[in-house]
Amino acid sequence: MTEPILFSVDGGLARITLNRPERLNAFDETLAHAWAEVTAEAVSRDDVGAVLLSGAGPAFCAGGDVRAMVEMGSGEALTELAGVINRGILSLVQSRVPVAVAAHGTTVGGGLGILLAGDYAVVGEGSRVGSLYANMGLTPDLSVSAQLARAVGERRALQLVLTPRLLSGAEAVEWGLAAEVVPDAEVAARAEAVARSWLDGAASAYGRAKRLVRDAAHRGMAEQLDEEARAIGAAYATPEAQRLTTAFAARAKD
């Protein structure tokens, strides 16, 4: 049986690849449970400093597998399945590991939430990104309602969830859903280059920076400033920061 997710760790980089290409990497029960397990492992390992998330085949992720939903036969089962997938999303979002996303091809429905679980997304010139929930009488899930408006603003979020509009790769960047658009054949390589740049630099500092930004929405200004002060102090105390700041100071003298 083909594994629903491909997972490996190489030189500090955890590769997570959705592997249902025949269904555009749409989630069924098997993929959902594998996703929850793999993401939890990836962000808990001491040998992982960055994650690269991608999809096999012609698309990144088409959200939930509608055929599998119909076979479930009940809203309760669908709610339970969404909860399993949400555990994986929370593993990535709440971790101190930065996540790069290679979102080639189509990203729709819950796939949009999977994309937003990453911290730096690369899309292709031919990519299409959208919601499409209402087309099937469904509502946003897999963190779309929690993360979309933060990324693009409330009015644009409503435009996506209330219409069948699909954004091009360039529009996804313009709207703030992705960081870069590159030729379709270069999406995977560019996303990996970004992830490896974190590993080649101050990996722990990138993770702390991610947490500061991700958690800011849950804090007041004064609390956030206190957290910033604690974080930079903790970062400065690490051997990594001591080496880099000392080297920077020495260069500044020249």
TrEMBL record:
Cross-referenced Gene3D superfamilies: 2-enoyl-CoA Hydratase, Chain A, domain 1 (3.90.226.10)
InterPro entries in alphabetical order: ClpP/crotonase-like_dom_sf, Enoyl-CoA_hydra/iso
Pfam families: ECH_1
Residues that span the membrane, as ranges: none
Name of the protein in question: Enoyl-CoA hydratase/isomerase family protein
Native species: Protaetiibacter mangrovi
